[in-house]
Protein: BA75_00449T0
Organism: Komagataella pastoris
Amino acid sequence: MENPLQIIDISNIDVPTAREVVSAAGSQGFLMLEGHGFSQEEVAELFKVSKGYFEEPLEEKKKYTIPANDNHGYTTFGGENLDESNPDKPQGDPKEGYNFSNLNLLEGTWNGATPEYFQKSEHARVVQSVIKKYSLLVHKLLALFAIGLEIDKEAGGADWFVERHKLTEPSGTTFRLLHYPSPKSLNPEETIRAGAHTDYGGVTLLFQQDGQAGLEIHSPLTKKWTPVPYVDASAKFKEQGAAAPIIVNIGDQLSYWTNGLLKSTVHRVKFPEESVREGKSRYSIVFFSHPADDTLLEPVPSPFIRAVNGRGAGAQSKAITAKEHLLKRLAATYGWY
Ligand SMILES: O=C(O)CCC(=O)C(=O)O
Ligand SMILES: [Fe+2]
């Protein structure tokens, strides 16, 4: 399967790397990163913890079902319908997930009722350690965005986005484990596992596993549904024991904030015919980063963003906060594009 995404090595924070990252985020809206800092062993352990959790009895998992007013907890099969264009779909998406929300990104801890499985220190330790790691990676990525967008030095330059994503401040950031069960146990006609949607927040980081295809983007370049294959680490990174490239995409909030310069690309999970026949489940691990709740989504002070004024944040007379933007987005009534 051909990889439609650019793979960028972010080991060094410099101008050429930053330009590449901004260009990919501003065209396809999805990209892959190497030099992300996650080891192969760490990611394998994380998938193991995730699989172990989903193997818990359904009754047990349901005890921690996500409450109506919070984003922390278990989402059961059919509990979520991501495709807002089809709100009357009788059943939601055939997948289950566990969200860790209300995070302290410095400590890697969360706030919310926690199943016994994740209270166990060997599981809690893994989750905490990756949340911290994701947060550092997000900061690195945000510095690259700021450099690539040439944010005005006097406004904060390379630190501009980082200052708005303080690790200890409340935010909508969510760490999510997902399980799309074996098609054998489901109607094989039902190949769409997560309806077409855009993500709500800033940047999303995703790990998938070899042989568990399904993610597709609606490419802004070709306007076609395009599968995103699993891609192995390149020779250099493999030798260092690094995990496969991490998939990055831009969410609605960052797209709005950058007057649409960075693209929030529509994507979905659709099982290919062969994986339906083979009866393979898919597990994916996703980190949704959001700015701190109180962050004002004022137009980003960048010459590139000023040049696309009149859209997104640039079209509003009064800046709204990240939290307000998220609440509007969640209400599913909000569309500026
Ligand atoms: O599982 C996947 O590959 C995609 C998940 C996703 O897009 C989401 O949860 O927002
Ligand atoms: Fe998504």
